[in-house]
Amino acid sequence: MDWNALVAPVVSYTLVAAAATVGVAYLVFSSGLTLLLLAGAGVLLVVLGAGEAGAAPASGFGMAEDSGMGGLTEGMEMLPGSSSDLSVRAKMLFYGLGLVAWTLAGLAVLLR
């Protein structure tokens, strides 16, 4: 797995987008209730992003296996960041993790 490919989406979604969302909500509302709702939305996005959506279409894999080209399927795992276009599930996962983390930071500031 190429961990360097995950740096850009983590920075853009978890740090920048989620921090901007929580920061705007904190400045506009200055309410713990709003931050709790954002935390709930973040948890929901994490579940939707990390959850298994069902069986992935494997038409290319099955055809390669049936024709005896077993070596073709090696290395074709669907890894986050393995393609130039990041999946929606990965974006939801990173953004949701950022919402949860930044909301906890905002709540810590409100509660002190």
UniProtKB/TrEMBL annotation:
Keywords: Membrane, Transmembrane, Transmembrane helix
InterPro entries tied to this protein: DUF8070
Record Pfam families: DUF8070
Record-annotated DUF8070 domain positions: 1-110
Annotated transmembrane regions: 6-28, 35-56, 92-111
Name this polypeptide is given: DUF8070 domain-containing protein
